[in-house]
Amino acid sequence: PQDADQLLYYREDKKGQILEEGINEGGAMCSWIAAGTSYANHGVSMIPFYIFYSMFGFQRVGDFIWAAGDMQARGFLVGGTAGRTTLAGEGLQHQDGHSQLVATTIPNCVAYDPTYAYELAVIVQDGLRRMYAEQENVFYYVTCMNENYAHPALPEGAEAGILKGGYLLRSGPRGKVRVNLLGSGTILREVLAAADLLEQEFGVPADVFSVPSFSELRREALDADRWNLLHPGEPPRVPYVQQLLEGHAGPFVAATDYIRTVPDQVRQWVPGRYHVLGTDGYGRSDSRAALRGFFEVDRRYVALAALKALADEGMLDLATVSNAIRRFGLDPEKPNPVTV
Protein backbone atom coordinates (compact mmCIF):
# COMPACT_ATOMS: atom_id res chain seq x y z
CA PRO A 1 0.00 0.00 0.00
CA GLN A 2 0.86 3.67 -0.29
CA ASP A 3 2.01 3.90 3.34
CA ALA A 4 3.97 0.61 3.43
CA ASP A 5 7.11 2.39 4.63
CA GLN A 6 5.36 3.62 7.79
CA LEU A 7 5.39 1.86 11.17
CA LEU A 8 1.59 1.76 11.37
CA TYR A 9 0.81 1.16 7.69
CA TYR A 10 -2.56 -0.33 6.76
CA ARG A 11 -2.46 -4.12 6.57
CA GLU A 12 -5.26 -6.66 6.89
CA ASP A 13 -4.54 -9.62 9.14
CA LYS A 14 -6.74 -12.38 10.50
CA LYS A 15 -5.12 -11.87 13.91
CA GLY A 16 -6.26 -8.26 14.06
CA GLN A 17 -5.03 -4.86 13.01
CA ILE A 18 -4.23 -1.38 14.28
CA LEU A 19 -5.81 1.69 12.69
CA GLU A 20 -4.00 4.95 13.45
CA GLU A 21 -6.43 7.60 12.27
CA GLY A 22 -4.70 10.71 13.54
CA ILE A 23 -6.64 13.69 14.85
CA ASN A 24 -9.91 12.35 13.50
CA GLU A 25 -12.07 11.39 16.45
CA GLY A 26 -15.25 11.24 14.38
CA GLY A 27 -13.75 8.90 11.80
CA ALA A 28 -12.07 6.75 14.45
CA MET A 29 -15.32 6.42 16.38
CA CYS A 30 -17.13 5.33 13.23
CA SER A 31 -14.44 2.70 12.62
CA TRP A 32 -15.00 1.44 16.17
CA ILE A 33 -18.76 1.34 15.64
CA ALA A 34 -18.32 -0.63 12.43
CA ALA A 35 -16.14 -3.19 14.21
CA GLY A 36 -18.37 -3.21 17.29
CA THR A 37 -21.49 -4.01 15.28
CA SER A 38 -19.90 -6.49 12.85
CA TYR A 39 -21.27 -9.38 14.93
CA ALA A 40 -24.76 -8.37 13.75
CA ASN A 41 -24.04 -6.89 10.32
CA HIS A 42 -21.52 -9.45 9.07
CA GLY A 43 -21.75 -12.38 11.46
CA VAL A 44 -18.17 -11.76 12.62
CA SER A 45 -17.53 -10.94 16.26
CA MET A 46 -14.73 -8.39 16.54
CA ILE A 47 -13.26 -6.94 19.73
CA PRO A 48 -12.49 -3.27 19.03
CA PHE A 49 -10.41 -1.18 21.42
CA TYR A 50 -10.48 2.55 20.65
CA ILE A 51 -7.76 4.37 22.60
CA PHE A 52 -7.89 8.18 22.72
CA TYR A 53 -7.32 11.23 24.90
CA SER A 54 -10.21 10.89 27.33
CA MET A 55 -11.14 14.56 26.80
CA PHE A 56 -11.66 13.88 23.10
CA GLY A 57 -14.14 11.05 23.57
CA PHE A 58 -17.49 11.96 25.13
CA GLN A 59 -16.57 15.64 24.99
CA ARG A 60 -16.03 15.62 21.21
CA VAL A 61 -17.95 12.67 19.73
CA GLY A 62 -20.58 12.07 22.41
CA ASP A 63 -23.36 11.84 19.84
CA PHE A 64 -21.54 9.03 18.04
CA ILE A 65 -21.04 7.20 21.34
CA TRP A 66 -24.77 7.53 22.06
CA ALA A 67 -25.46 6.13 18.58
CA ALA A 68 -23.08 3.24 19.28
CA GLY A 69 -25.08 2.37 22.37
CA ASP A 70 -28.34 2.60 20.46
CA MET A 71 -26.88 0.31 17.76
CA GLN A 72 -25.84 -2.18 20.48
CA ALA A 73 -22.15 -1.94 19.61
CA ARG A 74 -19.76 -4.05 21.67
CA GLY A 75 -16.17 -3.26 22.51
CA PHE A 76 -13.91 -1.14 24.68
CA LEU A 77 -13.48 2.63 24.66
CA VAL A 78 -10.27 3.49 26.48
CA GLY A 79 -9.86 7.09 27.60
CA GLY A 80 -6.12 7.61 27.93
CA THR A 81 -4.35 10.30 29.98
CA ALA A 82 -7.60 10.50 31.92
CA GLY A 83 -8.49 12.77 34.79
CA ARG A 84 -8.00 16.47 35.35
CA THR A 85 -4.49 16.27 36.82
CA THR A 86 -2.76 13.21 35.32
CA LEU A 87 -1.77 14.89 32.03
CA ALA A 88 0.69 17.51 33.19
CA GLY A 89 1.39 20.68 31.26
CA GLU A 90 -1.24 20.62 28.50
CA GLY A 91 -3.92 22.86 29.95
CA LEU A 92 -7.67 22.84 29.85
CA GLN A 93 -8.12 21.49 26.31
CA HIS A 94 -6.66 18.07 27.20
CA GLN A 95 -7.60 17.66 30.86
CA ASP A 96 -10.77 15.65 31.35
CA GLY A 97 -12.67 15.81 34.63
CA HIS A 98 -16.15 14.75 33.62
CA SER A 99 -16.15 11.87 31.10
CA GLN A 100 -16.88 9.38 33.88
CA LEU A 101 -20.06 11.32 34.57
CA VAL A 102 -21.12 11.70 30.93
CA ALA A 103 -20.65 7.96 30.43
CA THR A 104 -23.40 7.29 32.97
CA THR A 105 -25.96 8.90 30.65
CA ILE A 106 -25.71 5.97 28.22
CA PRO A 107 -27.71 3.03 29.62
CA ASN A 108 -25.58 0.22 28.19
CA CYS A 109 -22.19 1.84 28.77
CA VAL A 110 -20.28 0.22 31.65
CA ALA A 111 -17.73 2.72 32.98
CA TYR A 112 -14.69 2.14 35.20
CA ASP A 113 -11.80 4.25 36.50
CA PRO A 114 -9.24 1.66 37.66
CA THR A 115 -6.00 2.44 39.46
CA TYR A 116 -4.01 -0.76 39.22
CA ALA A 117 -3.19 -3.17 36.42
CA TYR A 118 -4.97 -6.02 38.20
CA GLU A 119 -8.19 -3.98 38.30
CA LEU A 120 -7.92 -3.31 34.58
CA ALA A 121 -7.25 -6.99 33.84
CA VAL A 122 -10.29 -8.11 35.84
CA ILE A 123 -12.50 -5.52 34.11
CA VAL A 124 -11.36 -6.41 30.58
CA GLN A 125 -11.65 -10.14 31.20
CA ASP A 126 -15.19 -9.77 32.50
CA GLY A 127 -16.07 -7.45 29.63
CA LEU A 128 -14.98 -10.10 27.15
CA ARG A 129 -17.10 -12.66 28.98
CA ARG A 130 -20.19 -10.48 29.03
CA MET A 131 -19.98 -9.19 25.47
CA TYR A 132 -18.63 -12.21 23.60
CA ALA A 133 -19.46 -15.28 25.70
CA GLU A 134 -22.80 -14.16 27.14
CA GLN A 135 -23.65 -11.95 24.13
CA GLU A 136 -24.73 -9.01 26.29
CA ASN A 137 -25.40 -5.79 24.40
CA VAL A 138 -23.12 -3.55 26.45
CA PHE A 139 -19.88 -1.72 25.80
CA TYR A 140 -17.17 -0.53 28.16
CA TYR A 141 -15.58 2.83 28.87
CA VAL A 142 -12.34 2.54 30.85
CA THR A 143 -10.17 5.48 31.84
CA CYS A 144 -6.41 4.97 32.09
CA MET A 145 -3.52 7.22 33.07
CA ASN A 146 -0.03 7.90 31.74
CA GLU A 147 1.55 8.06 35.19
CA ASN A 148 4.30 5.67 36.30
CA TYR A 149 3.83 3.96 39.68
CA ALA A 150 4.12 0.51 41.25
CA HIS A 151 1.29 -1.95 40.69
CA PRO A 152 0.67 -4.50 43.45
CA ALA A 153 -0.63 -8.02 42.96
CA LEU A 154 -4.34 -8.78 42.86
CA PRO A 155 -5.65 -9.12 46.44
CA GLU A 156 -7.23 -12.48 47.07
CA GLY A 157 -10.97 -12.42 46.51
CA ALA A 158 -11.09 -8.84 45.17
CA GLU A 159 -12.49 -9.69 41.73
CA ALA A 160 -16.19 -9.48 42.61
CA GLY A 161 -15.78 -6.14 44.38
CA ILE A 162 -13.81 -4.66 41.48
CA LEU A 163 -16.60 -5.54 39.05
CA LYS A 164 -19.36 -4.33 41.36
CA GLY A 165 -17.56 -1.01 41.69
CA GLY A 166 -15.76 -1.03 45.05
CA TYR A 167 -13.87 -3.11 47.60
CA LEU A 168 -11.90 -2.69 50.81
CA LEU A 169 -8.30 -2.22 49.73
CA ARG A 170 -6.62 -1.64 53.08
CA SER A 171 -7.78 -1.82 56.70
CA GLY A 172 -6.34 0.65 59.16
CA PRO A 173 -5.07 -0.35 62.61
CA ARG A 174 -7.30 -0.31 65.65
CA GLY A 175 -8.42 2.99 67.10
CA LYS A 176 -11.44 4.68 68.66
CA VAL A 177 -11.40 7.65 66.27
CA ARG A 178 -11.53 6.34 62.71
CA VAL A 179 -12.27 7.51 59.18
CA ASN A 180 -13.02 5.83 55.87
CA LEU A 181 -11.39 7.00 52.65
CA LEU A 182 -12.62 6.22 49.12
CA GLY A 183 -10.75 6.85 45.88
CA SER A 184 -10.38 5.83 42.27
CA GLY A 185 -7.97 6.21 39.39
CA THR A 186 -4.82 8.17 39.99
CA ILE A 187 -6.21 9.91 43.09
CA LEU A 188 -6.55 6.61 44.95
CA ARG A 189 -2.80 6.86 45.50
CA GLU A 190 -3.27 10.27 47.13
CA VAL A 191 -5.99 8.72 49.30
CA LEU A 192 -3.61 5.99 50.44
CA ALA A 193 -0.98 8.61 51.21
CA ALA A 194 -3.58 10.60 53.17
CA ALA A 195 -4.34 7.50 55.24
CA ASP A 196 -0.64 7.25 56.12
CA LEU A 197 -0.57 10.94 56.97
CA LEU A 198 -3.57 10.65 59.29
CA GLU A 199 -2.13 7.66 61.10
CA GLN A 200 1.42 8.97 61.47
CA GLU A 201 0.74 12.61 62.33
CA PHE A 202 -2.66 12.55 64.01
CA GLY A 203 -3.06 8.99 65.28
CA VAL A 204 -6.24 8.50 63.22
CA PRO A 205 -6.47 5.11 61.48
CA ALA A 206 -8.30 4.88 58.15
CA ASP A 207 -9.87 2.12 56.12
CA VAL A 208 -9.25 2.68 52.40
CA PHE A 209 -11.68 1.58 49.69
CA SER A 210 -10.82 1.39 46.02
CA VAL A 211 -13.86 2.41 43.97
CA PRO A 212 -13.24 1.67 40.28
CA SER A 213 -16.83 2.58 39.42
CA PHE A 214 -19.10 4.90 41.37
CA SER A 215 -21.56 4.63 38.48
CA GLU A 216 -21.84 0.83 38.73
CA LEU A 217 -22.39 1.17 42.48
CA ARG A 218 -25.15 3.67 41.80
CA ARG A 219 -26.85 1.58 39.12
CA GLU A 220 -26.96 -1.49 41.34
CA ALA A 221 -28.26 0.56 44.27
CA LEU A 222 -30.98 2.17 42.15
CA ASP A 223 -31.99 -1.26 40.90
CA ALA A 224 -32.28 -2.50 44.49
CA ASP A 225 -34.35 0.55 45.43
CA ARG A 226 -36.65 -0.04 42.46
CA TRP A 227 -37.15 -3.69 43.45
CA ASN A 228 -37.96 -2.63 47.01
CA LEU A 229 -40.50 -0.10 45.72
CA LEU A 230 -42.33 -2.74 43.67
CA HIS A 231 -42.15 -5.52 46.28
CA PRO A 232 -43.29 -3.90 49.54
CA GLY A 233 -44.24 -7.25 51.05
CA GLU A 234 -40.83 -8.82 50.50
CA PRO A 235 -37.66 -8.44 52.63
CA PRO A 236 -35.88 -5.37 51.22
CA ARG A 237 -32.73 -5.75 49.16
CA VAL A 238 -29.68 -3.93 50.51
CA PRO A 239 -27.56 -2.19 47.87
CA TYR A 240 -24.01 -3.49 47.55
CA VAL A 241 -22.44 -0.11 48.33
CA GLN A 242 -24.36 0.01 51.60
CA GLN A 243 -23.27 -3.53 52.46
CA LEU A 244 -19.66 -2.62 51.62
CA LEU A 245 -19.55 0.42 53.90
CA GLU A 246 -21.77 -0.67 56.78
CA GLY A 247 -19.98 -1.50 59.99
CA HIS A 248 -17.09 0.88 59.32
CA ALA A 249 -16.96 3.47 62.06
CA GLY A 250 -16.41 7.13 61.37
CA PRO A 251 -17.15 9.54 58.52
CA PHE A 252 -16.47 8.87 54.83
CA VAL A 253 -14.33 10.96 52.47
CA ALA A 254 -14.14 10.31 48.71
CA ALA A 255 -11.71 11.83 46.21
CA THR A 256 -11.27 11.32 42.47
CA ASP A 257 -9.66 13.11 39.53
CA TYR A 258 -13.15 14.05 38.32
CA ILE A 259 -15.76 16.58 39.35
CA ARG A 260 -17.42 16.08 42.72
CA THR A 261 -20.62 14.81 41.15
CA VAL A 262 -18.87 11.53 40.28
CA PRO A 263 -18.36 10.29 43.88
CA ASP A 264 -21.52 12.11 44.94
CA GLN A 265 -23.54 9.55 42.93
CA VAL A 266 -23.66 7.17 45.93
CA ARG A 267 -24.33 9.71 48.68
CA GLN A 268 -27.79 8.46 49.67
CA TRP A 269 -26.48 4.96 50.44
CA VAL A 270 -23.39 5.95 52.44
CA PRO A 271 -24.09 5.06 56.10
CA GLY A 272 -22.60 8.17 57.66
CA ARG A 273 -21.27 11.68 57.09
CA TYR A 274 -19.95 11.86 53.52
CA HIS A 275 -17.56 14.48 52.15
CA VAL A 276 -16.46 14.48 48.50
CA LEU A 277 -13.49 16.11 46.82
CA GLY A 278 -13.07 16.62 43.08
CA THR A 279 -11.56 18.61 40.25
CA ASP A 280 -14.40 21.00 39.46
CA GLY A 281 -13.19 23.74 37.13
CA TYR A 282 -11.11 24.10 33.99
CA GLY A 283 -7.78 22.39 33.47
CA ARG A 284 -4.43 24.16 33.83
CA SER A 285 -0.85 23.71 32.67
CA ASP A 286 1.32 22.69 35.62
CA SER A 287 2.91 19.70 37.32
CA ARG A 288 0.76 16.90 38.70
CA ALA A 289 1.57 17.85 42.28
CA ALA A 290 0.70 21.50 41.67
CA LEU A 291 -2.53 20.61 39.87
CA ARG A 292 -3.68 18.32 42.67
CA GLY A 293 -2.96 21.05 45.17
CA PHE A 294 -4.81 23.59 43.05
CA PHE A 295 -7.91 21.39 42.71
CA GLU A 296 -7.66 20.38 46.39
CA VAL A 297 -7.56 16.62 45.83
CA ASP A 298 -4.05 15.82 47.05
CA ARG A 299 -3.21 13.94 50.26
CA ARG A 300 -3.25 17.10 52.35
CA TYR A 301 -6.80 18.02 51.39
CA VAL A 302 -8.02 14.44 51.78
CA ALA A 303 -6.53 14.29 55.27
CA LEU A 304 -7.93 17.74 56.11
CA ALA A 305 -11.42 16.73 54.96
CA ALA A 306 -11.22 13.64 57.18
CA LEU A 307 -10.15 15.67 60.22
CA LYS A 308 -12.88 18.26 59.63
CA ALA A 309 -15.50 15.51 59.30
CA LEU A 310 -14.34 14.03 62.61
CA ALA A 311 -14.52 17.47 64.23
CA ASP A 312 -18.04 17.96 62.86
CA GLU A 313 -19.02 14.73 64.59
CA GLY A 314 -17.46 15.84 67.87
CA MET A 315 -14.65 13.28 67.69
CA LEU A 316 -11.87 15.88 67.40
CA ASP A 317 -11.56 19.50 68.42
CA LEU A 318 -11.53 22.23 65.79
CA ALA A 319 -8.08 23.33 66.94
CA THR A 320 -6.70 20.11 65.46
CA VAL A 321 -8.20 21.04 62.08
CA SER A 322 -6.75 24.56 62.24
CA ASN A 323 -3.38 23.13 63.18
CA ALA A 324 -3.52 20.75 60.21
CA ILE A 325 -4.17 23.66 57.83
CA ARG A 326 -1.01 25.39 59.12
CA ARG A 327 1.03 22.20 59.17
CA PHE A 328 0.07 21.34 55.58
CA GLY A 329 0.84 24.87 54.39
CA LEU A 330 -2.67 25.45 53.02
CA ASP A 331 -4.03 28.92 52.29
CA PRO A 332 -7.56 29.31 53.73
CA GLU A 333 -8.12 32.35 51.49
CA LYS A 334 -7.17 30.55 48.29
CA PRO A 335 -9.82 31.09 45.56
CA ASN A 336 -12.25 28.26 44.88
CA PRO A 337 -10.74 26.40 41.87
CA VAL A 338 -14.06 26.35 40.02
CA THR A 339 -14.03 30.17 39.89
CA VAL A 340 -10.51 30.57 38.49
Describe the model.
The protein has 340 residues and is α/β, with parallel strands linked by helices. It has helices at residues 25-36, 38-41, 58-70, 99-102, 117-133, 159-164, 187-202, 214-230, 240-245, 261-264, 288-294, 299-312, 318-327, and strands at 49-53, 76-80, 109-112, 139-143, 167-170, 179-183, 206-210, 252-255, 274-277. It has two domains: 25-143, Thiamin diphosphate (ThDP)-binding fold, Pyr/PP domains (Rossmann fold); 160-331, Rossmann fold, CATH 3.40.50. Strands 5-7-6-8-9 form a five-stranded mixed β-sheet. A four-stranded parallel β-sheet has the order 1-2-4-3, with helices on both faces. α1 (25-36) runs parallel beside α3 and α7 (187-202) crosses α12 (299-312).
Based on the model shown, name its key terms.
Rossmann fold; 340 residues; globular; four-stranded parallel beta sheet; single chain; alpha/beta; 38% helix; 13 helices; five-stranded mixed beta sheet
Describe what is shown at a glance.
The chain is an alpha/beta fold and 340 residues long. Helices cover 38% and strands 12% of the residues. Strand 6, helix 7 (187-202) and strand 7 form a beta-alpha-beta unit.
